[in-house]
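Record type: ASSEMBLY
Status: queued
Input:
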Amino acid sequence: MTIQFYDARRRRKAPFEPLHPGEARLYTCGPTVYKDAHIGNLRTYIFEDLLRRTLKFFGLKVVQVMNLTDIDDKTIRQSHASGVALKTLTAPIIERFFRDLKLLNIERAEIYPAATDHIPEIIALIERLLAKGYAYQAENNVYFSVERFPEYGQLSGMNLQALARGVRIDADEYEDKENFRDFALWKGWTQEDGDVAWDSPFGRGRPGWHIECSAMSMKYLGEEFDIHTGGVDNIFPHHENEIAQSVAATGKSFVRYWLHSAHLLVNGEKMSKSLGNQWTLSDLLERGLSPRAIRYLLLSGHYRQQLNFTFEAVQAAGAALQRLDTLHQAASTAEGDGPARDSVRRIIETARNKFSAALADDLNISEALAALFDLVAEAHRIRREMPLNRAEGFALQNFWHYVDRVIGALITDEVEIPTEIEQLVHNRMRLRTDRKYAEADAIRQELAGKGYQIDDTNQGSVIIWAKGRKLVNIPH
RNA sequence: GGCGGCGUAGCCAAGCGGCUAAGGCGGAGGUCUGCAAAACCUCUAUUCAGCGGUUCAAUUCCGCUCGCCGCCUCCA
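Status: finished
Output:
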């Protein structure tokens, strides 16, 4: 199947042709580790996870690099202000970042390089740019000269003339630049940097913002690689500058496909500090939202479309998952011998085809999910005529595992029910069979007191819930 | 001011030249059920922000208007 992605530079969808056949190399913009990720950051990471999982789904070997930006104005300022070493400041934030990824079932990238560990590579790249004449030193700073790079602005569609108009310039900060659009590759040490500084041929200082990504991506993925992603806000200036410095240094095209995720809105509004809606995952979990439903919600909208995050939407996502769970439950408790019916085989095949075709078309997850729900409806229709047999249940479960390689929210870990609880459930089942309803209800009360909700189904089985999460379906 | 995106049912959201405009949530009926719940079934947009144009044919292409949003030096 031909995968196609919307490439931001060409502004159209283009068939994905990896540079190295059978392998996709991607650089996904990761967190700046000065504070915990908010839900908008996480949306981008989920998009990148979807991309990665989809590439693997289509049989490609994936090498994903996600940078941890630990040198920037904010990390340095905080480090200096609190008198804490940079690494000491960022370590716990990085730890919580990985915890969030785990909670949202985001797959780990192959490499998580930190800027602070790549100073030599950064310096080498800057030297290359100086040698080729694309960069110049002024005082203790090294700048990239955008005027010497004629293709500048291709990605963002901005040209230097347009950029020159209507923008205020902080004259103090940029007075040593030849052109105010020039950006720093190396920043000479200033008082505010505290002890965040490295020696270099250009003097003591620290890297600029964009250069780390060029240095680290080239180190791990090669001077030219397949995919680079990030939030739309990175298009300009970050990615534009990355292209400029990378292409200028190597003469190669750098990145073949640029993919950007649209921003998340919260209750229809842009997230901002002043609105207090920059929720972290922890904030949401404290309010009782399930990470699984959050993942589903963040995943379910197309990545190039703004997504409005509301509690109601998380609720709706949870309900949608439940509909998918119900069929999975039915499949896993199916009984009876014999071969799978053709009708069951057929609906699975149809869903399989639609699912992968949708994903191959620029990660059209909404359409892919629709294929799943169509399957659910069809399966129930078939099930009503005659319950699923074991072969059919197995086929459906298989398919669930197959699509969950991409969705990452369908198959949940089996939860152990304490024997004591299971015993009570079975006792109650017997009492119900004996029509001793008062005693059965008493046990249900007792279980509710222990945090387990019991739902009877019309097949005689029961479903156990705890903390709003479906735990198990115990067959009669 | 420059560059770009979006406006599809109560809400979310696909489709982007031609079969009855996917799917989810919610809602309304129904089936099942000791109860409670869950689950399942059916229904829920004569129409795609508005107005023009191109075309045999437009939600899909073009233009204008209205509304919302993003970027324009360190915000994913």
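Annotation: DSSP finds 16 helices and 16 strands in chain A.
Annotation: The CA atoms of residues 153 and 160 of chain A lie 7 Å apart.
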